[in-house]
Prior knowledge:
The complex is a heterodimer of chains A (about 200) and B (about 120).
Chain A: H1 17-46, H2 60-85, H3 89-119, H4 128-155, H5 161-164, H6 166-196
Chain B: H1 5-32, H2 39-61, H3 69-91, H4 106-109
Helix pairs in contact in B: 1-2
Amino acid sequence: MQIPYTVEARRDTNLYNAKLGMWLFLASEVMLFGALFSSYVLLRVGHPEWLYGPDKHLSVPLGTFNTLVLISSGITILLAWASLRLNDFGKFKLWMGLTIALGILFMGVKATEYAAKFDGGHYPHTHTFFAVYFLLTGLHALHVVGGLLVNVYLWGPGSRMWRTEPERFTNRVEVAGLYWHFVDMVWMFLFPVLYLL
Amino acid sequence: MQTNPEFIQREVATHLKVFWLILMVVATNVAVTFLPVDTTVRNTLQVALAVAGAGLVLTFYMHLLSETVSTYLVVGLTAFLCLALLALTMVARDSVPEGTHSTVDRGAAAPAPAAHVP
């Protein structure tokens, strides 16, 4: 049986199903991160000795660099999608490959930061700040890994669909892009909240 | 979805401009950290800049500007519920359940810990 509305939009929603599904999924994700941000506010406001500045042992230059990496991956995935719309599959491979490379670089920098924390004896149980830091950044990193797996699939074996159903494949890349931008957006809150404030 | 090459090229050009704008927002946010101003002012400014950056991603990269009513409904309801959750947290932050106490009052008038009854 053919799956309906993978390419054409439904008349009632004006969206193809995968896109509406992704927006609904992202809505649930907003509530998940929203609840954790609420917990962060509550813990920070109520804590008698919250950590500030150098006491947090976080590297602002590294955090800034990682932010730039993730923002750059946001534009490269957009360019990958635009390449497909312009029927340029070669460029899609290039931009999607770059998106994956930037995602891996982000995870590499994150791993370096985690290693530095552990070497310095800073674990989630050490202080409430570190518990919040590891929970929020860890959950975000899991989301990055999830996005990377999808992007690698679309770049590799999944890209075969381009030969048979190019429009459907383009839509898949668009939906993967929506998710990747959401991950980007969450980091844009995490970076100032954890590193700068 | 628009497939006109000129339209797509224009869209890409806009996205590139937004990319530089987001970079500037992030750079400003880092620079604000070193401003010699009151902590409350600085924190408010930094949260506002984070919201601005995220707003740019949402409106341009996620194409919220050109989305349909059903998307606006999903995003609007989510934003309302998320803000309500944050507001509830702030309103109820001092309403700790019976048997617990706020760590803020620990130094002043903290009740003695309840004896453990086996």
